[in-house]
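[job 4417] fold queue: 2 targets
>>> target A
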Amino acid sequence: MIDQPDILRLLNPQYFWDVDISRLNADKAKRLIIDRVFGLGKAKEINLVIEYYGSGTVADVLKRMSYLDPKTLNFVSKLFKISLQSFKCYRRKQLIPPHWNS
């Protein structure tokens, strides 16, 4: 099990360029941490986050996010074996029609 200070120390501080990482509480900022690590992180950091929060919690947070880039969305869908329709960002994207190009 990874302790709270350890998880923040093991992650790349460049992912949190807009916040003071020393003041972050890993439990209160789990949505921010999961978002940044899955969007920008490497496999080792993704595994650390899953180990710290648990795969169920990570999957729930990711399913409720309003935006995930397409590559991250497909990766997470395959990693946790969750259908794309379960993700809020996927359903939301389906509701917004694309611009019509000539």
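>>> target B
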Amino acid sequence: MINKHQLSANAGETADFDRGSIFFIGTATVILRYAGFTILTDPNFLHAGDHVHLGYGLTSERLTEPAINIEDLPPIDLCVLSHYHGDHFDQLVEEKLDKDLPIVTTNAAVAELEARNFRKGIGLDTWESIEFKKGEARLRISSMPGQHGPGIVDFAMPDVMGSILDFETETGERSLRLYISGDTLVIDELKEIPARFPEIDIGLFHLGGTRVLGVLVTMDDEQGVEAIQIIDPDTAIPIHYNDYDVFKSPLEDFKRAATEAGLDEKMVYLAHGETHNFEIPASRKMKTSS
């Protein structure tokens, strides 16, 4: 059974199912606006020179500036958090983000959030879903497989999830399917995603080739290309690629690999502060959810 949550809509507000936008703040942080929903992902608002804690006494320095400050956020309906790590939910966010904001994440992250007085964490197991309704629009968020490190290293890393966001009309017709990879490596379980959730419109892929003590814990250029080939979205947007000193695989390397793999027509590249405005093609509208 899918738990359902009702979100407040402004009087007279109507859901626009024809177009939306993705505003890239930096790291894995975006603001997605679609069908009346405003959604924040993996909030990270530290500034260049600040440090995050990665556990076991390890830290990482931020090299970039976020496109906006946390105080400048618009009203947010909910947050999707791939995992609890300092570069995805930092100390500024712990202090300043609304403690009553619904946050869809892993069960392990919910425990960390509750310890910091966040009251509406929603934990999902892999393939489990949660549904939100706002006005005439529905949003189903489903947890996807993810693994933050190879082999035994993964046991020392936080649990991580990818996400599928399905936006639907009141009558259950799907208008947009969006995938967020989370901080995962390429694993066999990723192949189940397009089998269970075909016809993905947009994919956000966490890259960067993050290395901790020399061990790869997020996708580099080669794995990023492989993941896009597996998931096969109509549009692929790399994020999480240049913000911390533990990110060792530059975006330029990924661009070359994507071109060599023949993926250029799928790719949208965003710098901090840029927006991808998208429209739903008539051929992709109103697909019944799988």
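[job 4417] complete. Note on B: Residues 22-198 form a domain with the Metallo-beta-lactamase; Chain A fold (CATH 3.60.15.10).
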